[in-house]
Every structure is written in C-alpha cells, then in structure tokens.
C-alpha cells in the first residue's frame, strides 16, 4: 500500500511546476490527504475482496449473507468470475450477465472470423453456459 502512495506522490511532484512553493504546497496536500486516501483505498479493497461494490446497501449485503452461508465451492466462485458478477448476486443480475456474455461470445457472431477466433468463441461460449448452469443450480433459480 505504501508503494501506491509513493507513486502518487512522485506523480504529483512531476506534474507540478518546478517552483519550490508549488512543490511545498503539493507536499502539504499529499501529507494531509494520505490518511483519507489510505482509508478509502482500504475500504474499496475490503469491499472488492468481500465480493460487493461500494454502492451496495447494507440490506443488500445482509440478504446476500443469508442466501450464502459458509464458504462457496470453488466451481461457484469460478462461475461468478466467468460471468463477472459479484458473489451472492441475485438471479436477475446473473441472468442479465449471462445474456450479455453469451451475446458477445456466441459462435454465430464469429462465423466469418478466422478459425482460431471461431474456436476461441466456441470455447468461451461453452464456459459461459457452464458457469450459468452452475450458478443456476447453486442458487436454485430457473
């Protein structure tokens, strides 16, 4: 985490004019905002590792916690990653992510592409379908 702040500080210094007063002013701003930036970054990191966005409400988080007690199986976590949905997302969000992903990677869209791209689209569509089936069965929705 300290490396990030050092890089930010170095970037701010390079962006400021070489005037000594401007550098001192920039240093003061960076020093006073360090703790606030650390708090924000740690909060965002914590939210990301918990599988939720920072805009999620507490009631949404409680509902997710109730629907998924205990650790999730590896294949369910991989399915969440494949469809790019947060852990504990509702059926509507999962279905929407599935529809968007399969529309992007459907093999028919790559019918005129090179053979390697067609194979890649076929493989990706298969992964997306498998991920959706895993999540559908795990969260028991149709």
Please give a handful of descriptors for the protein shown:
single chain; 142 residues; mainly alpha; 6 helices
Structural account:
This protein has 142 residues and is an all-alpha fold. It contains six helices and no strands. The protein has helices at residues 2-15, 20-49, 58-67, 74-83, 91-105, 115-139. Helix 4 packs across helix 6 and helix 5 packs antiparallel against helix 6 (115-139). The chain is flat. It starts with a helix and ends with a helix.
Please summarize what this structure is.
This protein has 142 residues and is mainly alpha-helical. It has helices spanning 2-15, 20-49, 58-67, 74-83, 91-105, 115-139.
How many strand elements? 0
Number of helices: 6
Structural class: mainly alpha
Spans of 5+ residues with little confidence (pLDDT < 50)? 53-68
């Amino acid at each position: 985490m300290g490396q990030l702040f050092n890089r930010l500080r170095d970037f701010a210094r390079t962006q400021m004019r070489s005037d000594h007063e401007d550098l001192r002013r920039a240093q003061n701003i960076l020093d006073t905002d360090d703790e606030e930036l650390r708090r924000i970054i740690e909060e965002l990191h914590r939210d990301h590792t918990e599988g939720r966005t920072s805009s999620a409400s507490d009631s949404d988080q409680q509902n997710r916690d109730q629907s998924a007690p205990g650790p999730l199986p590896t294949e369910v976590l991989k399915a969440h990653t494949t469809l790019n949905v947060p852990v504990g997302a509702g059926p509507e969000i999962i279905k929407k992510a599935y529809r968007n992903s399969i529309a992007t990677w459907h093999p028919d869209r790559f019918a005129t592409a090179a053979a390697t791209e067609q194979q890649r689209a076929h493989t990706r569509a298969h992964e997306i379908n498998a991920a959706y089936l895993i999540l559908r069965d795990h969260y028991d929705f149709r």
